[in-house]
Design goal:
1017 residues; 11% strand; binds flavin-adenine dinucleotide; binds iron/sulfur cluster
């Protein structure tokens, strides 16, 4: 499986000498560009990350000179393999992404191809305009990629596809010439020549075009040869003129390389209302679509029962999807249709909503509509709908929903019969389809579950052939949205017949005589089921290895019809589940986001595929399947190589992907696997040991008179900081946490008398007892947080037990130090065995409390969530589960107690604004709501959550000399600017390292929530 291609050194040297951007020819970098969101994989010959248009121009000239194929790439989110190929892949998304012009008067914008749709729309928003091709991947999809695929959004019934919204394209041809593709009547030069050639072909073939061209809005197959005699339901131009740019739209990088694109903007609708129609029968839903579109909606989108159920079983989506149901307690509807009306004022929209309700009554479905006027509710529901594919793709096991007939488009009057017949085809082939998406235009997404490693290819062909028959019967388009790529290229001739296919070939040759642009797409396509092109071909094999953590929950297979999952550990993974967990990444690119939530902080600052969750998952997959460089190291341990280190280096273990990756790729745990193996190979550095063993030596340091003060000199004497940087790699530009001589442990009498209770004793009296875990950071460096927490809990009437090992514990539990530890610092250094020892002692101590239902409270999120996360996959069984269930942050506990009326606080009013920064692990476990709720107990506090990703400190990461720059860049993305804007605010941050980043970055003290609350007692 190893890709042996060697990029000619002479050409690499030429390119490197003449471009500002980076050229990669190694296997790992090529491997990260070998896939898109399809089932295919083809290694590029090399990858270029251009810095600007000049770089692309140079690369195209060199490629033409040496006859090297070229593949332009945006976000790489295509579903059909069109972004994979043995070519020089040029990634526009890194830097070739400027907005060149926004003309508000003409409502037009000119942009470079690598610009992401959402970024353009964010820029346009203040002017009340938007680019309305609203693809679900709007946060990742680039304008160049959208034009390449002729992408279509949920609202295409109102706005059309890309082809209806692109006004002009300036593009390089394979010979390096630049063509201005725009209105044919005004065209000149090479664009005019090519346009005239295509016009003559179109005229000759007019009868064939009339006969064979599907008459639906959603047809994206082949090239748009019909621009001279449009066949689409919606004219390509408002005045029926011919625009040559439309020839390039949908050409999938095979005709020309887009340099810039001129776009038609639309007024941003000021008002929207939604009517969610609940159906007891899927067939009725499909039948209704043709009637619903007559009401003039801006969208009619389907979500079927399976998807509703999947969304209901996902904590992130449950509440939202239930807002769409007439009765969440009743049986789930077989389908819902989201019918949206939009316009300049609300009153007419409400009338349209009323019309919808009446129409459904006329159709015999009275009271089936949930009216949704609230914009937030609507927005949240659209997010669930947009996550449709990703929700489906979270299925564990080797069988996956495969896209190849996922976007056939049929006229609406046939939609019900088509979907029913296709469902029967799936049943016949032992599979099942989940349906969702664009009912308004007859394009429903459906992916049968196939196992491409086993019998998937044969079933794929059989299903495709029968689906094609249905498309023909109902006069539809086989390729209706996502493009042709590798999975539908061979169906172009089926759709259009031999004459038109030959004409498409002639167009290709006219534009690109050597066929260098994205070969094998649209023209001369391979067979869709050629397993040599598969990411998981039948000979795909994993190098056996025994992971440090328990991954058996991923080591399963699924039933393609019921989607039932086999028992953990039965999936046959030679890496005991780790490989299958990595393979959950389907390359959808959702981690390439910059605004909402957290994932993936290292990509946000580098825009580099290798510092992205997807890049990491691909690298791990390639390593574990022996597809990277094979040397003694990779053969003995594929995860311990430098190639894997390179991608893991900037992963800050924020755990955001665990929650935000739609398929649950948990890179933070995978990093533990990597670190354990890599450090075993290269050994631990002094810095690793200093960080990892901190919980062991902290009690000794703080107990030795004078030592804390001596160590704190490091923050005051620059020479010591420099020396320490040289010796350990801890950056001199960072202040270190300040050692305290006075800690909680100093007064053992009080500790023993007041804060040491057996589980039963703790429950005596009113039963208001809690365990408060004193972690190393709060105990030895920020004792005031612990004291504040104790004060709060005591004020509210709780008896507190603070875990402390006894002499016996230390004898019985080898490895247990003077204080308990959750093992976090050891995990961060890849010392899994040591972490296990620490956790074992702590869990043994906590278990009897947890068993009695006593809450175990923590202050430091990264320590507390170790008990709820890693501890569950480290072989502790029921003990860890029981403790994990009781473990919670202080605020989670207090909010629940307040709500239950078991405690109350009389707090003074706030005199300053309150800003809140959530620790990544709080966000990953959806534990920020209690933080805000508890802060609202302070009268007039009105806490404001800072929309921030990772603060960039991430444990020891931000202290490391080689990472300090990236760390600061992460903080400057949104966190620090937001704090600077409110100079007099309290800044609340539960994470120790977050507080340090804030202190270092804006010279402001951030406080733990316990402290702000205690200050208002
Ligand atoms: C979860 C999910 C949901 C999706 N939802 C939708 C949807 O709602 N609607 C929809 O239409 N699609 C959808 N897609 C498919 C895909 O996201 C879109 O087609 C998207 O527009 C592709 O953008 P990209 O930047 O990732 O392009 P890429 O995949 O990188 O490229 C797409 C094509 O354009 C070509 N190209 C890129 N740049 C240039 C250039 N400068 N010059 C010439 N050719 C170029 C490429 O060679 C390739 O053939 C979805 C995909 C996923 C994974
Ligand atoms: S890591 Fe997750 S979010 Fe990123 S591409 Fe893979 S599946 Fe999508
Ligand atoms: S843990 Fe955080 S930094 Fe690492 S891959 Fe996941 S989102 Fe990115």
């Amino acid at each position: 499986m190893l890709n042996n291609y060697v990029f000619p050194a002479e050409i690499a040297t030429r390119l490197r000498k003449n471009v500002k951007g980076a050229l990669f020819t190694d296997l790992a970098n090529r491997g990260r560009y070998a896939t898109d969101a399809s089932i295919y994989q083809q290694f590029p010959v090399a990858v270029l990350i251009p810095q600007d248009a000049e770089d692309v121009k140079t690369a195209l000239a060199v490629a033409a000179e040496f006859a090297i194929p070229v593949l332009p790439r945006g976000g790489g989110t295509s579903q059909c393999g069109q972004t994979t190929g043995a070519a020089l892949v040029i990634d526009n998304s890194h830097a070739f992404r400027n907005i060149l012009e926004i003309d508000l008067n003409r409502a037009e914008a000119e942009v470079e191809p690598g610009l992401v749709l959402d970024h353009l729309n964010a820029k346009l928003k203040p002017s009340g305009l938007w680019f309305p091709v609203d693809v679900s991947t709007g946060a990742q999809a680039t304008i160049g990629g959208m034009a390449g695929n002729n992408s279509c959004g949920s609202r295409s019934i109102a706005y059309g596809n890309m082809v209806h919204n692109v006004l002009g394209i300036e593009a390089w041809l394979a010979n390096g010439k630049v063509g201005q593709f725009g209105p044919y009547a005004q065209s000149t030069g090479v664009a005019k020549e090519l346009g005239t050639f295509v016009k003559s072909l179109a005229e000759q073939l007019q009868p064939e075009i009339e006969a064979n061209w599907p008459k639906v809005l959603r047809r994206v197959a082949g090239y748009n040869l019909d621009i001279f005699h449009p066949q689409s339901e919606l004219p390509y131009t408002s005045d029926s003129s011919v625009n040559l740019a439309h020839l390039l739209v949908g050409s999938e990088g095979t005709l020309a390389y887009f340099k810039s694109l001129r776009l038609k903007l639309a007024p941003l609708p000021q008002h929207k209302v939604l009517g969610v129609v609940n159906f007891k029968s899927f067939y009725r839903a499909m039948e209704s679509a043709q009637h619903l579109v007559k009401l003039g909606p801006s969208a009619v989108e389907l979500v079927d029962r399976t998807m509703i159920d999947l969304a209901r079983s996902n904590p992130s989506f449950k509440q939202v999807i239930e807002t769409a149901l007439i009765d969440p307690q009743a049986i789930t509807p077989e389908a819902i249709l989201l019918v949206e009306f939009s316009g300049e004022s609300q009153a007419p929209l409400l009338a349209q909503l009323q019309n919808l309700q009446e129409l459904m009554g006329d159709l015999g479905l009275a009271n089936s509509v949930v009216p949704m006027i609230d914009t937030n509710l609507q927005k949240n529901l659209w997010e669930v709908r947009k996550a449709g594919l990703n929700i489906m793709m979270s299925l564990k096991g080797d069988g996956k929903p495969v896209s190849f007939i996922e976007d056939c488009a049929v006229p609406l009057e046939h939609l019900a019969d088509y979907t029913q017949a296709l469902t029967e085809v799936f049943t016949k082939h032992g599979s099942r389809g989940t349906w969702y998406a664009h009912a308004s235009v007859g394009t429903l997404h459906v992916r049968p579950i196939l196992d491409m490693r086993r019998d998937g290819a044969a079933k794929m062909r059989a299903v495709a052939e029968e689906a094609a028959e249905l498309v023909r019967r109902y006069k539809g388009a086989y390729s209706g949205e996502h493009g042709d790529g590798l999975c539908r290229g061979e169906w172009i001739s089926w759709q259009f017949g031999p004459k038109i296919t030959a004409a498409l070939g002639a167009i290709k040759t006219a534009f690109d005589p050597q066929h260098l642009f994205n070969p094998g797409k649209i023209i001369d396509p391979p067979k869709m089921d050629d397993s040599i092109l598969f990411r998981y071909p039948p000979n795909y094999a994993i190098i056996p290895l025994k992971p440090a953590l328990d991954w058996s929950a991923w080591d399963v297979q699924n039933n393609p019809v019921t989607e039932a999952i086999s028992a953990p550990g039965t999936g046959g993974d030679p890496a005991l589940g780790l490989a299958k967990a990595i393979e959950m990444c389907n390359n959808n690119g959702h981690c390439r986001k910059f605004d909402a939530e957290v994932m993936c902080p290292s990509y946000r600052v580098t825009r580099d595929e290798k510092h992205l969750t997807r890049g990491r998952a691909n690298t791990l997959r390639l390593a574990m399947s022996g597809q990277l460089e094979q040397d003694a190291i990779s053969l003995s341990d594929p995860l311990a190589t430098d190639a894997v280190k390179e991608v893991m280096d900037l992963c800050v273990s924020c755990k955001a992907c665990r929650r935000e990756c739609p398929t649950g790729v948990d890179m933070a745990k995978m990093k533990i696997e990597f670190l354990q193996r890599y450090k075993k190979r290269v050994g631990h550095s002094v810095r690793d040991l200093l960080v990892a063993h901190l919980p062991r030596y902290a009690p000794i340091v703080s107990a030795l008179p004078g030592l804390p003060a001596l160590l704190n000199l490091r923050n005051q004497v620059p020479f010591i900081a420099k020396l320490l940087q040289w010796l350990t790699g801890i950056s001199a530009a960072r202040s270190l946490p300040v050692w305290r001589a006075k800690t909680l442990w100093k007064n053992q009498t009080i500790l023993q008398e007041k804060y040491t209770h057996s589980p039963d004793a703790l429950l005596q009296g009113e039963g208001k007892g809690v365990v408060l875990f004193a972690d190393t950071f709060n105990a030895y460096f920020e004792n005031e947080n612990l004291q504040a927490a104790i004060r709060l809990l005591e004020t509210a009437g709780y008896r507190i037990h603070i875990p402390q090992p006894t002499k016996e514990t230390r004898t019985e539990q080898p490895g247990c130090g003077k204080q308990f530890c959750c093992g976090r610092t050891y995990l961060a250094a890849g010392m899994v065995n040591e972490a296990q020892e620490q956790l074992s002692a702590l869990l043994t101590h906590l278990h009897p409390y947890a068993e009695r239902g006593i809450a175990i409270l923590g202050l430091e999120p990264s320590c507390l969530f170790t008990l709820k996360d890693e501890a569950l996959v480290m072989g502790f069984g029921e003990q860890a589960i029981t403790v994990g269930q009781q473990a919670q942050l202080l605020e989670t506990f207090l909010v629940a107690e307040l709500k239950a009326g078991r405690c109350q606080f009389n707090l003074k009013a706030a005199t300053k604004p309150v800003l809140v920064h959530g620790h990544c692990h709080q966000k990953a476990f959806a534990a920020l709501t209690p933080t805000l709720e508890l802060l609202k107990q302070i009268p007039q506090a009105n806490p404001q959550l800072i929309e921030s990703s990772c603060c960039g400190m991430a444990g020891s990461f931000g202290y490391e000399v080689e990472h300090i720059t990236v760390s600061k860049q992460m903080a400057e993305l949104s966190l620090l600017p937001a704090i600077r804007k409110v100079p007099n605010a309290w800044v609340v941050a539960d994470g120790t390292s977050c507080r340090h980043q804030i202190q270092d970055g804006v010279n402001r003290e951030a406080v733990h929530i316990a402290r702000i609350l205690a200050a208002h007692l």
